[in-house]
Write a structure and sequence with these properties.
The chain is α+β, with helices and mostly antiparallel strands. The protein is built from 27 helices and 24 strands. Strands 1, 2, 3, 4, 5, 6, 7, 8, 9, 10, 11, 12, 13 and 14 form a 14-stranded mixed beta sheet that branches. The chain has a six-stranded mixed beta sheet with strand order 17-18-22-20-21-19. It has a four-stranded antiparallel beta sheet with strand order 16-23-15-24. Strand 1 (58-65) and strand 2 form a beta hairpin.
């Protein structure tokens, strides 16, 4: 009953001050909504692979080179058998092959046409005992016993079979120019969004072996040898078995398999860490996130909640003069300090409780736009909302308590005689109130500097000079086993009047490439790990790279291509050679040196690279075309392709578009930071506007007296603003070193990053100062226009 009475009393008081209540409520609703969205982002990023029942017992094997420390997500074949025999603590082991990564593009036939499918994997049957894969109906017989069986997702079943029952039906796939007929054995529900393993088709690992033998009959035995690292391998340890028992037998296992003789090592990566801890792992097709983004999301959420809470505290403190008589009367009538504190905290909690459903309603309204704005398609109003409801409720109670705590303690400590005096309360005496304002401005400055710097860094990554001319480059990638008319395609394309130059390369830019080898230079007695890239004539001319020294492979001087290479500047740097030493080497024979450039969008640091002439290894034709002829050239090249490969789909790509699209995640991150930082400014502005409203009303007599004594409007505005200018100066003094340090740490995560510019800090300080000044000027002008006689009347 007392609680109900307290809420009724609180509601009456809040209803009296509609303007201030509306400002407080709007700030809380916006703050809570923004914080909830950011927390959902953060929790979802942390939830990857938690969708699998045994996620805490699953591990992935990471191969590591002892000398270079290079890590890759592929493990030697021999480990699977050895683990089963030597590690009794391991319950299950399964190999996984991403077929499009291992053999090339995979096409699935539908209505006499083949469609490209990326999510096609081959795996051991044990995978179904390790991952949470839910079948649509009970499975008959053993899964994936032979190479002709396939399991498909409900999405694939709908795409390829419509309403028909697909079980027992055939699907035809094509890869490497060969066709394979598979029988659908079962249908499973699409894997959850927060699984790093995504697949619409799961075939037997035996299918992959069969493809390798078909495509590489002369070398398949070496490709599939025991020490070849071609499989992603995951293992499930037994329940209640400490992982340390598995780890301590690792050295013994390496010796048993003979991998120590080739300098190999392997690590066990917890399955839960794949998404956020795999940035340094090569040959990894799993989804990846950035740990630094989590810190930004969490910080933004906390700052926005603090701003909303501080707004409430500042306005409630400044408005507390209206309650002095009320507090004095209640104390005279016997109200205890505990009762007064409870009443004022109830008002604060009531405000947040009203804000809670409004923020959830606003969350529902903006939910459809979250995916469009941030590329984040996670639904907030399905089963996963239950995971967040308790967290949201705790935040509501925490903000409600913290927002009202200072005001409650302050007002409950008032002396009844002081409280009953008809004397205006001086805001200048509220020291903690000043701290709130300075802290609010500190957060606002930090967010503004932070989001400007983050945007500059993202723009730099997207637009940085990668050493080649990205514009007007068309690419056609093909499988060498399917398409054998590369030379004819190149020659016919070069004859087109829209084409400036054309050449080929043994990778698919701007995608990932990691064909490496050890290079030993006898003259220097040094060994290096280098990347190998096969190219055709006129390659550097086509991509817009000028050689530093020497010459590139060009017709008709074919003699230069025999056992000759071109190297990049990074090889000279790590070897310490100068240009005369480079050209004097006998092995490798070097005819040219090119500056460091990046064909791979994921590559940030220069990699020592050797380019060699080998048209037989080309998989991508790169075409430099005249500006503005993109559409005409696309039609002409497609016509040539249809003539040379009538049974193969035509797909052309453009380097600049694909390069920029690889930074979609970074761009979305920038949008999130920008939009929520702007929202934080709005919340700060609402609080400052409310505070300016209160202060100007309480200083109307002071303004009136100054006007009567002849003070100018400009002088009055300055007097009203100078206190806030001091607050901004203090907040700037505190914010600059803290923000500089944090941004320095964040930028150092990138190999290529911008410097911290002093003018960003100056701009932020001036922007926030102007922002506060405009709010105060707008309100002060209204007070100045009032007739002084009205303000000087006896109340």
């Amino acid at each position: 009953m007392k609680l109900v009475k307290a809420f009724v009393t609180s509601g009456r008081f809040l209803a009296k001050s509609k303007t201030y209540t509306a400002i407080n409520l709007a700030g809380l609703v916006l703050g809570l909504t923004a914080a909830f969205i950011l927390l959902v982002f953060l929790i979802n990023e942390l939830s990857y692979n938690h969708c699998h029942s045994y996620h805490d017992r699953l591990y992935r094997i990471i191969s590591q080179d002892k000398e270079s420390g290079t890590k890759e997500a592929l493990a030697p074949i021999c480990l699977v058998t050895a683990i089963k025999e030597s590690l009794p603590g391991v319950e299950k082991v399964s190999r996984i092959v991403r077929l499009s990564f291992a053999t090339g593009k995979v096409f699935v036939k539908r209505n006499d046409l083949f469609y490209h499918e990326d999510d096609f994997i081959c795996a051991d049957p044990e995978i179904f005992d390790m991952l949470s894969i839910n079948f649509r109906e009970e499975v008959q017989g053993n899964l994936l016993n032979d190479s002709t069986q396939v399991i498909i997702s409900s999405k694939a079943a709908e795409t390829y079979f419509g309403l028909e029952n697909p079980i027992g039906k055939k699907i035809e796939i094509k890869t490497c120019g060969r066709f394979y007929s598979l029988t659908v054995q079962a249908v499973y529900q699409k894997l959850p969004w927060n699984s790093t393993i995504q697949a619409d088709f799961i075939a037997s690992i035996k299918l992959f072996s069969e493809i390798e033998w078909d495509v590489y009959p002369n070398s398949a035995s070496s490709i599939l040898s025991a020490t070849s690292s071609i499989y992603e391998t995951i293992l499930l340890i037994k329940e209640n078995i400490p992982f340390s028992d598995i780890e301590k037998n690792k050295t013994k296992l390496i010796k048993q398999t003979g991998l120590d003789s080739i300098g190999a090592n392997f690590l066990f990566q917890p399955f839960n860490e794949i998404y956020l801890n795999s940035e340094d792992i090569q040959n990894d097709c799993s989804s990846k996130g950035h740990k630094s983004n989590l810190l930004v999301y969490g910080s933004l959420a906390v700052f926005i909640l603090l701003l909303a809470g501080i707004n409430y505290s500042i306005l409630s403190t400044a408005r507390s003069v209206l309650r002095f008589k009320e507090i004095g009367v209640r104390k005279v009538l016997g109200a205890s300090r505990k009762q007064l504190v409870g009443q004022i905290l109830t008002e604060s909690l009531l405000m947040t409780l009203v804000a809670f459903p409004l923020s959830l309603l606003l969350l529902g309204l903006v939910n459809p736009f979250i995916g469009q704005m941030y590329g984040y398609e996670i639904s907030l109003y399905r089963s996963n909302i239950l995971e967040y409801i308790f967290l949201f409720a705790a935040i509501i109670l925490g903000i409600g308590f913290l927002s009202g705590a200072y005001v409650a303690v302050y007002l409950s400590n008032l002396d009844p005689l002081t409280a009953l005096k008809i004397k205006l309360f001086s805001f200048k005496r509220l020291n903690l109130g000043k701290v709130f304002i300075i802290f609010q401005l500190f957060i606002t400055l930090g967010l503004l500097i932070g989001f400007i710097t983050i945007f500059q860094q993202i723009a730099y990554l997207v637009n940085r000079d990668i050493g080649i001319n990205k514009e007007n480059l068309m690419m056609i990638t093909f499988n060498r086993k399917e398409f054998t008319n590369y030379n004819r395609l190149k020659n016919e394309v070069k004859a087109n009047h829209h084409v400036v130059s054309a050449s080929g390369v043994s990778l698919s830019p701007p995608g990932y490439s990691n064909t490496t080898t050890s290079l030993y230079i006898s003259e220097l007695n040094k060994e290096f790990t280098v990347e190998l890239i096969a190219i055709d004539y006129d390659f550097f001319q086509t991509i817009g790279v000028e050689l530093l020294f020497g010459k590139e492979f060009v017709l008709p001087d074919s003699s230069q291509t025999a056992n000759t290479t071109i190297v990049n500047q990074e090889i000279m740097r790590i070897s310490g050679m100068n240009d005369s030493m480079v050209f004097s080497l006998k092995e490798p024979k070097i005819i040219g040196v090119v500056p460091n450039f990046f064909l791979n969008s994921e590559q940030t640091a220069p990699v020592p690279t050797i380019f060699f002439f080998r048209p037989s290894l080309i998989i991508t034709l790169i075409i430099r075309y005249k500006e503005g002829t993109e559409k005409e050239l696309s039609r002409d090249v497609e016509r040539i392709w249809r003539k040379l490969a009538p049974d193969q789909p035509f797909e052309c790509r453009f380097f600049d578009r694909e390069f920029n699209s690889t930074y979609t995640r970074e761009k979305n991150f920038g949008r999130i930071v920008a939009s929520f930082s702007i929202l934080a400014f709005v919340i700060t502005g609402m609080g400052l506007f409310g505070l300016a409203l209160l202060l100007s009303e309480r200083r109307m007599k002071e303004v009136a007296i100054r006007k009567v004594l002849g003070a100018s409007d400009l002088n009055i505005m300055y007097q009203m603003q100078k206190e806030f200018l001091v607050y901004i100066a203090i907040a700037s003094f505190l914010a600059v070193p803290v923000v500089w340090y944090l941004l320095h740490l964040w930028l150092n995560q990138f190999y290529n990053h911008i410097p911290l510019h002093w003018y960003v800090f100056v701009f932020a300080i001036l922007a926030v100062g102007s922002f506060v000044s405009v709010i105060l000027i707008i309100r002060t002008r209204k007070v100045i226009k009032e007739n002084p006689l009205n303000a000087l009347k006896y109340e």
